[in-house]
From TrEMBL:
Name of protein: Sodium/glutamate symporter
InterPro entries cross-referenced by the UniProt entry: GltS (IPR004445)
Keyword Transmembrane included in the entry's annotation: yes
Ranges of Polar residues composition bias in the record: 241-254
One Gene Ontology CC term in the entry: membrane
Keywords from the named record: Membrane, Transmembrane, Transmembrane helix
Protein's GO biological process: L-glutamate transmembrane transport
An example molecular function term from Gene Ontology annotations: glutamate:sodium symporter activity
Region annotated Disordered, chain positions: 241-281
Membrane spanning stretches: 15-33, 45-64, 84-102, 123-144, 183-205, 321-338, 358-376, 421-444, 515-536
PANTHER family: SLR0625 PROTEIN, SODIUM_GLUTAMATE SYMPORTER
Amino acid sequence: MADADAVPQGALDSTSMRIVSSVACMCFFLYLGHIIREKLAVMRWAMMPAALIGGLLALLFVQLCTLDDTVSAAVEYDWIVGWSQVPGFLINIIFTTLFMGSKIPSLKEAWRWAGPQLAYGQILAWGNWIVACGLTPILLMPVYDTNELFGSLFPVGFEGGHGTAAGLTDTYTELDFPEGGDLAITSATIGILSGVIFGTIICNIGDRYTWTFTSYRNTSRDEEQNSSSGDLPVVESESNASFTGSLGSKQADNAKSLKPLGEEAQTTSTTEFNIEDDTEDYDDGALPMLGRDWKSSAVIAVENRVPGSYLTISNDAIDTMALHMAFIGLALLAAYFTKRGLMVIDGFIDSEYSFLSGFPLFPIAMLWGLVVQVVVDKYTVISPLDRGMMERIGGISLDFLVLSAIATTKVEAVADNLLPLSILIVVGIAWQLLAFFFLGPLMLPDFWFERAIAELGKSFGTTATGIMLLRIVDPRSETPAMKAFSCKQLLHEPFMGGGIWTSLALPLIKSLGNWPVFGIAAAFIVFWFGMYLFLFRKMKLGPAVQYRFVAEYNPLS
């Protein structure tokens, strides 16, 4: 914020007015990002969210204002006051809502669906830390004199996304790497763009070479129509009934199949999984791309709109959203006292670094949100929590977090570290692609492409990107990939991608160095690969590696 002497004459003096102007300015850029996304098809093709576009516009606006000291002082004082504190606050709300509102499946059920998926996702995530902690001491520190935490920018930005990057900004500062937060946010932005670009290209490769179930089915149908020698064999299962019939009678079943955790629970992501309420029959069993494609407007037609949340409490008692915010507040309060306890314990530890004090609040809030949900499930006959409402609260928090985090990025810090950051990201992307093309078909027991593409999108930045890529290749969620991916997230998120390990890794690197953390990551990769060899390999039908889709090796039922 500008100093009092630098504030131009006529600037607003009322604190409340300054808050109003700053919030209104943030909303203006968010809406402007939405309008630009609607008008420019290339933005929709790139799947760039309005918050990201608005954040980049706000960043450009702020940088242009710095050309004049008076204008810059006025803007900082009246229009963007508090923006830099917004990400650190909202990330706690986002992580608290991750598991709230959904009935938590048993570990046995989650493991049954997600075991192989979890092993693959864990190897992918720990491999990010191998890249980070290996490249930093070998190349980045001796050649570019970077901070020892520099390599963590890749897993924090890519695997964690904007939310985690913003949440760890204070931790980077406490660990003597003040520019780390800005660089991590830049890494997250590059991750989203890379995920969409590389992911879309790979989806087209999978369709062209019949690596996906959808491309296999469509190819089989075309060959049936052009052949007079009889029907080709297809997978006989209830999920595959749309091979030869119209879709009108299957819409209800398809809607259920889009709940990735089955009938008992919904997804932990803040992304909706709704299909258009379309009862039209399609000729020849053709499968339309359900939902929107990039050519369509983001505004949903009235006849296709579905509820985003439900009222669970009578309004004469308390507003439903207010009650949900109260539950979130309870989890945050418990997280606050937990963090205070860690700080007290840290005071009794004779160490050069504040290991426990540097642990961020948001993963603690996530765990307490999970505890609150378990308690609600156990002690209420009818749960007052609605998953859709939690998604709306988490969604609005994420949009404003992304916008404010990007808008307040310090461009100078990015420019000074552009070359080592570029090297780090290029090597990291190479690891992601290597894992997809070689480990994916090896480790995943069935429907390897659908399962692996979701993990690729997630590891490039957000769960939403992974789900978006999965929807491209499996638009009706006919394969088990969505359920496996969502169950895997329940087991994966508390530790990686912004979870406990991501938060622990930074003070560990600072106190122990990169090589011990490299060793920890390598040990976990060996562990999970051993899990694959001894537990999950026997679940796979057919050869160890099979790129092309073969129906007999990938049963739908």
